[in-house]
Design the sequence.
């Protein structure tokens, strides 16, 4: 079983819809959580970073972390065709000398105009 | 452009050849990372440098792989005796050593390697 699980999709929604993307994880030591957006054949682009539990909002994006359930979410409001991409969750434990991020396999999102 | 840059963007090679990739991190970022990504998967960690010191290596980094960051600025990743299984996107990321963003890793565009 992978440390981080993510539904590969594809997830297809109409323009303007609210999108919910999720990851579950098994390592309770993870404290730092990130969401990346990756367009086809491009490098991942950092969207959101949260530490420990709680919510964080940035424009149309909201990240939620529920450590008790080992579950993180990314919500996209008023989705646009330009949001069509693969969304990767990533996380890390705060261990000295260990900086490696553990990624999910990504969810492909298609926003239909 | 002040982001992470990687060169080349694409590399096609024959099995058994050696290849070298270069990464230039964001200026003043003292941490640099290499990841590998295959189709349909998330990036997998390979190695991490703080300044010129290589502090962490994944078991994925076999003895055919070597990475350097000689002056604590740019880094190179070399793959010797390439195999078809090495075909992947090789991603470089960097992060600052301190400040509000010190946990955030910023990725470059990647080098896509195809081994024939």
Sequence:
């Amino acid at each position: 079983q992978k440390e981080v699980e993510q539904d590969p999709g594809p997830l297809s929604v109409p323009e303007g819809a609210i999108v919910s993307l999720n990851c579950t994880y098994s390592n309770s030591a993870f404290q730092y959580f990130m969401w990346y957006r990756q367009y086809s054949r491009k490098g991942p682009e950092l969207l959101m970073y949260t530490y420990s539990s709680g919510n964080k909002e940035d424009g149309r994006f909201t990240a939620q972390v529920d450590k008790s359930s080992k579950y993180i979410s990314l919500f996209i409001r008023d989705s646009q065709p330009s949001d069509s991409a693969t969304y990767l969750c990533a996380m890390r434990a705060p261990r000295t000398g260990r900086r490696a991020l553990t990624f999910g396999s990504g969810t492909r999102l298609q926003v239909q105009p | 452009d002040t982001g992470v840059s990687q060169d080349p963007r694409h590399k096609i090679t024959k099995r058994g050849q050696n290849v070298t990739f270069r990464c230039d991190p964001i200026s003043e970022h003292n941490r640099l990372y290499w990841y590998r990504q295959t189709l349909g998967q998330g990036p997998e960690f390979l190695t991490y440098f703080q300044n010129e010191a290589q502090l962490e290596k994944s078991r994925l980094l076999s003895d055919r792989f070597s990475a350097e960051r000689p002056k604590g600025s740019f880094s190179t990743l070399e793959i010797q005796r390439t195999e078809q299984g090495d075909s992947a996107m090789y991603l470089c990321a960097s992060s600052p050593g301190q400040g509000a963003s010190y946990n955030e890793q910023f990725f470059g565009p990647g080098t896509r390697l195809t081994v024939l």
